């Protein structure tokens, strides 16, 4: 249950925790449409049964978390990857291509440059055209085989979302799966008004926290009426008129992408960094909800402590185990404000407390709850 409760938080901590899974998209729902009525249970069943394994699309993000605009550095925890912090503010656009669990391409379309994440079997590339730099990671075959044998096939309610590499590409399906994996009595699930997303009719599934402590007012998931594929996710914060965070396709093609899209060759003159991920035994520990290339860089999942339940839960990380984004990213340092005993990041949806002793507390709750949790340890 501790792992399930953590996923409520990880759904909104994606921008702070994932190096390649920087979330994109904004819900651009069109006018309401007429669809046969369905219950929340029927829509959840549609999502669980979706057979979409290949697609191409354009996604847009809009983040209005109450933070000042953070500059784009184009550097993340892996050289050549995007810094996740910059996606906490403003709007961003990306193209995504997926063909099964082990072929995916994400193109981040910056104003003056393009960044790419390309997965093709055991090969993983990060490329930044701004400085013509690339990072190449090789995933050991045994590691992939262990993951395929260990993890479930689809994200469904009350079951962990699939952790295969392509599933970590930040699509609306991946983000919706993180929320739906932990549905429990702390959430009221209702059906909203049908609409249109990326030219396709969608049902709207609305998650309403039954908590007065969380910063989250509601989460809306737009579900394709034909395939059951989530096409958009919108998160609203309490006391905020506009959505605080949104993710959706603006264009979508459900045909199989050209195989050549997953073959990546760095441009001439590119600076290339080679990395090999060490194989690690899966059965001895719980897999973290991080992208595959981060597994060798993160502390073991059992070092995290989850305090509280549901939407009110707080994740506590011991000193030395926090992601680098929390402690060393210069962009994040600009947004951290001094508080008693450390520094804090407060947004309309997520609060993060970084103590002077290196411990980190985070949750979709006010800062005061994090400080209370820290004092209780």
Plain-language structure description:
It is a single chain. This protein has 377 residues and is of the alpha+beta class. 17% of the residues lie in helices and 32% in strands. It contains seven helices and 19 strands. Strands 1, 2, 3, 4, 5, 6, 7, 8, 9, 10, 11, 12 and 13 form a 13-stranded mixed beta sheet that branches. Strands 14-15-19-18-17-16 form a six-stranded antiparallel beta sheet, sandwiched between helices. The longest helix has 16 residues. The chain is globular and about 55 Å long.
Kindly summarize this structure in a few lines:
Mean pLDDT is 76; it is low at 1-29, 73-82, 143-165 and 280-302. The chain is 17% helix and 32% strand. It is globular.
Name some characteristics of this structure.
377 residues; alpha+beta; 13-stranded mixed sheet; six-stranded antiparallel sheet; 7 helices; 17% helix; disordered N terminus
Topology overview:
Layout: H1 2-17, H2 40-49, E1 54-64, E2 89-99, E3 103-109, E4 114-120, E5 123-128, E6 133-138, H3 141-150, H4 172-180, E7 187-191, E8 195-197, E9 200-209, E10 216-224, E11 230-237, E12 245-253, E13 271-276, E14 305-307, E15 314-317, H5 324-327, H6 330-335, E16 337-339, E17 342-346, E18 351-355, E19 360-363, H7 367-376
Parallel strand pairs: 6-13
Antiparallel strand pairs: 1-2, 1-12, 2-3, 3-4, 4-5, 5-6, 7-9, 8-9, 9-10, 10-11, 11-12, 14-15, 15-19, 16-17, 17-18, 18-19
